[in-house]
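Hello forum,

I keep getting stuck at the same step: I have a sequence, I want structure tokens, and every attempt I make locally crashes halfway through. Rather than fight my setup again tonight, could one of you with a working pipeline run this one for me? It's a single chain of 242 residues.
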Amino acid sequence: MEFTWHGHSTWSLDVDGTSLLIDPFFDNPKTTLDPEELDPDYVLITHGHADHIADVDRFRGAHFVATPEIVGYLTDEYGIEDATGMNLGGTFQAENAFVTMVRADHSNGLDTGYGTSGGMPAGYVVSDTKPTQVADSESQTFYHAGDTSLHTEMKDVIGPFLEPDAAAVPIGDHFTMGPMQAAIAVDWLDVDYAFPMHYDTFPPIEQDPQDFAKEVKGTGSDTEVVVLDGDESFDLGDQLDY
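Reply #2:
Ran it on my machine without issues. Output:
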């Protein structure tokens, strides 16, 4: 499994030849990529805020996955025709990838002028094997936490049962967790690798990612913090020691 950070909360993933894109928003200072260069099979949306869906119209040929409320909004406002509406706890098979929608604690208003809700915000756990109660030591699993605060489901459900190897967590503070709470999340998740995201896009969320790395170390966790440059990739399969 290989994944690439395009700044903010935007990630592209390759899972055994199946390509996925999460929260397309390319008007951010960390990326120079023309989104037309990407051709994802699937687009996953965590919630309906503009800095997570701004470029969905560039990917109308993909299959979208989101809450039913978000799917309806994208259909009406962006002309998205191919989509699956799902909800927290569900798992969707996207060819070679298994996508489980998990809890995120955040707001989820849609830009309709009426304060319409997009339902529950979400995170996604993406794996190359179907989640089961039987641990699969050779699976590769990536957790995108979405826009969220710290919540105990990371410790009680996502970490022990969905078993992510790597986690992308917001560190920007103000709208989401800051470095300290994000570090606690990483410790609870017990992942091998942690990637900061959702920072340095706007003035309220300016952060030094090395502060996050120090906070992770301060928890006593042995998780490796990897600070990616915009449009930089990480190959999980090359790093895991089975």
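The mean pLDDT is 94. If your local run keeps crashing, start a new thread with the error log.
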